[in-house]
Design a protein that fits this description.
Number of domains: 1
Distance between the termini: 18 Å
Oligomer: single chain
Number of helices: 3
Order of helices and strands: EHEEHHE
Shape: globular
CATH topology: Alpha-Beta Plaits
CATH class: Alpha Beta
Structural class: alpha+beta
Largest sheet: 4 strands, antiparallel
CATH architecture: 2-Layer Sandwich
Radius of gyration: 13 Å
Strand content: 25-35%
Helix content: 25-40%
């Protein structure tokens, strides 16, 4: 079953996101990532991703994302200013 992950970060804009994205690498190389979208909403950056499974999301975070945050020196700050919402997807439609 697909897994939905929503992150809302305060104080981290598109510049920070672009730095992270550059270091993470091309989206096509991320195993299990089905859909991703993000946008700036005032002081908030909202990021939505849909994964093949929770295990895929967890593996990406531990093996690629967190090390990038650490290399940029923003890991603690991101965790302190980000709220997460997650759930199993009951349905997934892709046009």
């Amino acid at each position: 079953m697909a897994f939905i992950h929503i992150a809302t970060s305060k104080g981290h804009g598109l510049d920070t996101f672009n730095q992270v994205e550059e270091k993470v690498g091309p989206r096509e190389s991320i195993d299990g990532l089905l859909v991703e979208s993000y946008g700036q909403d005032g002081d908030y950056l909202r990021h939505v991703s849909i994964w093949e499974s929770k295990a895929h999301k967890d593996r990406f975070e531990s093996e690629r994302l967190v090390p990038v945050f650490q290399s940029l020196g923003i890991a603690a700050e991101v965790m302190a200013t980000t709220e997460f919402a997650t759930c199993e997807a009951d349905s997934l439609y892709v046009r």
